[in-house]
Amino acid sequence: MIKFFSLETEQIVGLLLMVLLHVVLFYSAWSYQRMPQSTKDVILFVRLTEPLPKPEIVPPEPHKPPPRKVKLQKKPPVERPQPLPMLVAENPVVSPVDVVAEVPPPVPVALEPAPEPAPVVVSPPAPQVAQPVMMGSELSLACPNRTPPNYPTASRRMGEHGRVVLRVELDETGKITAVRVKESAGYKRLDEAGIQAVKGWVCNAASRDGMPVKAIALQPFDFVLD
After folding, report:
1. Where are the alpha helices (DSSP H) in the chain?
2. What is the DSSP letter of 139?
């Protein structure tokens, strides 16, 4: 007894596990012997078949009424109308005393003469306006009385210089009618000095085919500081 209680705790737990394992094995063997065992084997056969086709539904025929009996009746004969007797016109009997009047000839109708067409009045063509002639040389060559432009004092003091080109229009008598700047010198005072100088010139008229005409000419001025 002293030896039993002196055993270590691990040895006691091991002994208890061994006893429990033997009890479980004994109970399993005893239960297996008591279960009834089948002496016959059952074999099941499974046969796979296709699904049956669905029956076609035939709609019922509509109810038809019984055919009616038709009695054939004979039509009475149609009487054709008798043709009427034809009347033939008899030729009139002309006695030798009867006189047939002659038809007078047609009277000629005098036709009125057709009216004469009104005379067409042709208006004379409008006189053509002579176009101005472009002079090939400078305007100064056609102006015997001319003076050069004055160099503005303010332009000299401020160092303004450059070249101005003027477009000048003349009438049939050689009188200057318009002056405008075609190319500016870059300074308004220089352009105005050139315009004022040209307006005082007296020029000869330009001619074409021996007749005086309007003309257009160009006149350049160079403003150069000394």
Report:
1. 2-5, 9-34, 153-158, 188-199
2. G
Mind listing the pLDDT tens digit for each residue in 145-194? 889 999 999 999 999 999 999 999 999 998 999 999 999 999 999 999 99
CB distance 122 to 165 below 8 Å: no
- CA–CA separation, 9 vs 15, rounded Å? 10
Fold for the domain defined by 133-223:
TolA/TonB C-terminal domain (3.30.2420)
Q: Do 218 and 139 form a contact (C-beta atoms < 8 A)?
A: yes
Residues 6+ apart with CB under 8 A from 203: 139, 142, 143, 144, 170, 174, 175, 176
Structure-block tokens of residue 69: 């009996």
Overall pTM surpassing 0.85 (yes/no): no
Nearest Cα neighbor of 133 from 201, 62, 54, 212 is: 212
The DSSP code sequence of 51-78 is PPPPPP-PPPPPPPPPPPP----PPPPP
Report the candidate in 105, 143, 139 with the shortest Cα–Cα distance to residue 219.
139
